[in-house]
Amino acid sequence: MKKTVLLLVMLMMAQGMAVIHAESFKSLPQISVDGNSFVDEKGDTIIFRGINFSDPDRLVKAGEWKKDLFRTAREWGSNVVRLPVHPSAWRERGPENYLQLLDQAVEWAKEFELYIIIDWHSIGNLRTELFQHDMYITTLPETYDFWYTISHRYADEPTVAMYEIFNEPTTINGELGRLTWHQWSEIVTDIIAVIRANNPDAIPLVGGFDWAYDLTPLNYAPLDIPGIAYVSHPYPQKRDQPWVPQWEIDFGFAADDYPIIATEIGFMQEDDPGAHIPCIGDEEYGRTLMRYFNEKGISWVAWVFDPVWSPQLILDWDYTPSRSGQFFKDVMLGNEKLE
């Protein structure tokens, strides 16, 4: 009998069958929204802290799409990872081929008990279909189709916890045309309807204006949709110091009523590769932001686990932490004194 079982296991392994996945890599508990909190199935509040990977398509092309990414994210203390899907990459690779990457991400995430945010990574004005760069070009029909495909594919997979509808809405001071909060709300409401038709348990994430920083329209016109959360990207130079009073006015106030998750934060120095003005900062920004988030119960995901895209969390593909990477790693592991 023992010999028969051993031969069967060896045969399955030889055929490439993952004999341990069914038992070892079960889906994580379903996350939902309760008031202004993310909660698990027991009703316990979950604060998400984690890292952004770069686009899986980019990682494949760089030869770096591998399980070690997820293992390292967990070793850094993450409980969530964000996967930015660029529209240009989605089209170039094709939906079915891209979905294979996301399926692999789900398996790796389950192995290391990490939740996933899937992000439609465009920057610009979805109403006028004008965008900041060619890689972000999309259309309303393509966006609807993307979320139809994703929500149908992962309807029964709680590991895919959140669906970030559109990375960074912006008109670039009118250069990309008009976009009012009412117009944006109408677009977002339609997209959420598509998602919820396939996956009633999905948590859609809605970004504010000014490159997903400004949530002040929630003061007068929040979306009348239960079970959603809002996004802000409070990079250091979005506002001058003192930061906290302005953060409270611009997005933090909303955490009193809704779950807020900062799906991009980070800092870098002026002489770092690829440095750009909104991200110039240091540990003073980091500690101030972390204290504020702790006080408000705001979840966050640091940008970005890539030595080329900036602000970088790593210096190389050996995952050597950059200055900001070391800071956020220490925070997640409880090694950074914030007071």
Looking at CATH, the homologous superfamily is Glycosidases
The top-level CATH class is Alpha Beta
The 3D shape can be described as: globular
State the distance separating the first and last CA atoms.
62 Å
Rg from Cα = 20 Å
Order of adjacent strands in the largest pleated sheet = 4-5-6-9-11-12-13-14
- Determine the structural class based on helices, strands and strand pairing: alpha/beta
- The fraction of residues assigned to DSSP E strands is 15-25%
Task: Describe it.
There is one protein chain. With 339 residues, this protein is α/β, with parallel strands linked by helices. It has one domain (31-333): TIM Barrel, CATH 3.20.20. The protein is 37% helix and 17% strand. The protein has twelve helices and 14 strands. A hairpin with a 5-residue loop joins strand 2 and strand 3 (45-46). Helix 7 (140-153) packs parallel to helix 8 (181-198). The longest helix has 18 residues, at 181-198. The protein is globular and about 45 Å long. Mean pLDDT is 93; it is low at 1-23.
